[in-house]
Amino acid sequence: MHTDMRTDRNTARTNAARAAAAPCDPDPAGAIGVGVTLGLFAAWALHDAEEVAMVSRWTRTRVPELRERIPGVPEAVWERLESLDGRRFATAVGVMGVIVAAAAADGHRTGGRSGFYQGALTGFGLHGFVHLAQAAAVRGYTPGSVTSPLLVIPFTAWARRRLRDAGVLRPATPRDIAVGLATAAAATALSHGAADRLLRPRRGRWSQRGQRA
């Protein structure tokens, strides 16, 4: 009995020594690297910088041509595109940036395990394919179609591979892909709706000043 007690004490000491000697990683994202998580925001910012820089000129020069060439598209779609002035679009991008930054930060905090982060990453990658589909549909350039194959899709594939190697990637099912596309669309709609709300009071004040003058 005494021998068993001594053995248990020795085992406990050995386990404690191993635990003390084991390396401690204070950064939960250390196994996958900061670039995988916070890099999502950086990649998104570069991608959307292209859109912000090009959307006003593109809608001004291409929408009239596309309206004549593709008559089957509802008029509301063209009107919506024509309403994308630079200030309104940049405001919507700023709102989206808050969402993407929150997802990237949550991914960093959880070492890439966050469902919010992984969903945003999936949506970001699928968003790149949507840009390519849009460019194919109009048979030409659309804002965002340059950085999609050069940055968005490669970054998403690389980040997912790193997550998979670390054993934290959740398997993507057809349902996950559908949810990712729906989430990306909902976030886009939310950002543009928020931009409308943020800019509407200013437009009202400016119009009242113009009437008084």
Topology:
Blueprint: H1 2-21, H2 34-69, H3 75-82, H4 86-109, H5 115-138, H6 147-165, H7 174-212
Helix pairs in contact: 2-3, 2-4, 2-5, 2-6, 4-5, 4-7, 5-6, 5-7
Distance between the termini: 100 Å
Please state the structural category. Answer: mainly alpha
Please mark out the parts with pLDDT under 50 across 5 or more consecutive residues, or reply none: 19-27, 203-207
Q: Which term fits the overall shape? A: globular
Q: What number is the mean pLDDT?
A: 80
* SS field, number of helical segments: 7
Could you characterize the architecture of this molecule?
There is one protein chain. The model is unreliable at 19-27 and 203-207 (pLDDT under 50). α2 runs parallel beside α5 and α5 packs across α7 (174-212). The chain has seven helices and no strands. It is mainly alpha-helical and 213 residues long. The protein has helices at 2-21, 34-69, 75-82, 86-109, 115-138, 147-165, 174-212.
